[in-house]
Amino acid sequence: VFTNFTVTGDAVVNGGKWTHPLNTTSTPKYHLAVSVGGTFTLGAAASIDASQKGYAVNVYHPGSALGAHGGASGNLAKAYDSPYQPFYPGSGGANYAGGGAIWIDCAGAVVLNGAIKADSVQDSNAWNGIQSGAGGSVYVRGATISGSGTLSAKSSPASQYGPAACGRVPVEFVGTDTFGLPGHNLSLFASPGDPADSGVR
Q1: CA 120, CA 97: separation in Å to the nearest integer?
Q2: Which of 92, 108, 171, 188 has the most neighbouring CB atoms within 10 Å?
Q3: What is the mean pLDDT of the chain?
């Protein structure tokens, strides 16, 4: 149901921010999906940021629950989406929208020195009645992946209503690994204290 932005050659983003609008209904309408036929470079001064662009406050994925996505919300076993190729935003919470959905599919090399974020919120007042939305989804696929940037799909780690779930942040290589594993520079983040569906394969 999502549209896809296609770049037939190389794509270089050295400044500014890519994002998408907030999803205000339980049928998600917005997602940032980009296919690149050549190489993709995200500079250190640029970002792809869909933080709080997932499901809106008090809106959640069909069949799920507030604050759920890559894991359950509190005691509710309502996780959804693929851990390997996620495509959905994070469910909203009572106070904050969930993280959005970012999909980067590149035929060539991917160089990430900026931040790619699909966060809900990291709130120091989480125990004072604040309920975060869930982290969203970040999927990156390329022939090789390198860089010193960050990918994140965070939520608030706890609240009096139980923690909101982390998002999903898989990275997939289809060619030779230049990611530098195990000593890579690129950082993958989900929520502190919540099992992450982040991974590299």
Answers
A1: 6
A2: 92
A3: 81
With a pLDDT cut of 70, the percent of the chain lying above it is 74
Burial state string for 61-70 with b = 16 or more CB within 10 A and e = fewer than 16: beebbbbbbb
CA atoms within 13 A of residue 195's CA, in its CB half-sphere: 7
Residues 6+ apart with CB under 8 A from 94: 57, 58, 66, 131, 161
Q: DSSP class of residue 92?
A: P
Q: Exposed, middle or buried: residue 186 (CB in 10 Å: 0-12, 13-18, 19+)?
A: buried
Cα(62)–Cα(121) distance, integer angstroms: 22
The neighbour count for residue 102, using CB atoms within 10 Å, is 31
Residue 126 has pLDDT above 70, yes or no: no
